[in-house]
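Sharing a chain and its predicted structure for anyone who wants a worked example. Both blocks are below, sequence first, tokens second.
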Amino acid sequence: MLVGLDVGTPPQLFTVVFDTGSNYLVLPSIQCGKPCENQKKFNHIASSTFLSLNETRNLSFITGGGVQPVIEGAFDFTANISTETVTIGNLQASEVQTWLMTNVSWGFYENPYDGIIGLGPAAINGTLMAGLIRKGLPSVFGFYLTPNTIGGAELTIGGIDETKLEAPLSYVSVPSTDKHWIIESTMISVDGTTLPTLNTTLPLIIDTGTPGMMFPNETAKAIYSLISSEIQPLDSLGSWGISCDKIETLTKDLELHFTTETGDPLSLIIPHNEINVGIFPSNPTFCQTYINSYEELCVIGTVALKHYYTVWDMNPENPRIGFSLNVSHSI
């Protein structure tokens, strides 16, 4: 989901991804040359509210804005750390920690957006939400994500848009806010069928900054075995797929199962029409499917979230994520 964000004084407008998988604002700097030529660059010299923290860091993102598998070094960057005033709509936060990228690796080159604003689960000093909460804004935000064909995606900061809900919200507790929005699934099934590998508790990162899904290889293999034996690894990096002339034969829905904070069961369904994420670049006769293998993390991205209205409650006494089918869902 791309949104316009004003940074600095006077404001400089950037298109950013609101990312629950990170914490801080990340933007290209005017000090970043050719690697950042496709993005707008923040001119810190022109801003009266810019404050350098005199610190430089190197960081890596695991995923980018596309559905490619995890490739080491694809999303590495070097940034100078500073603070800035950030405005979205009629909301303004000061001293937001801003990572100004001075060099980036190849994965960033073709991004259709300028930067990333983190909405991680902890309102730690320097985050956008922490700055807004200090001004009295409720510590909650709601996402209405939609397929591209529908459009009209929406982020509500400090509240919930009840008009986008098709059913009452069901909340799942977040055990820890140390790093990610993580909730524990109790089982994964396909059209009601599961396997021992999938009938177990899994901590899932819920990430608006990731388009697809990632699971360890054995988990991905088990899920795909229940959908079709013809879905196979496409490379050594974690991509899976099937011959494009068979993609329309895949009609089974993926289900993620949870227990709500009231002890009730909750199932999030990812419909079968989401499985095709496009032609595999190096072999156009094959279509890539929605789960990539990655041993270290389980991540659920917008391929699932665009069918649900999600509420992200940062209350430190009871962090949680709420789910309701949204009014544009295709389930």
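Comments welcome. The two ends are 21 Å apart (CA to CA).
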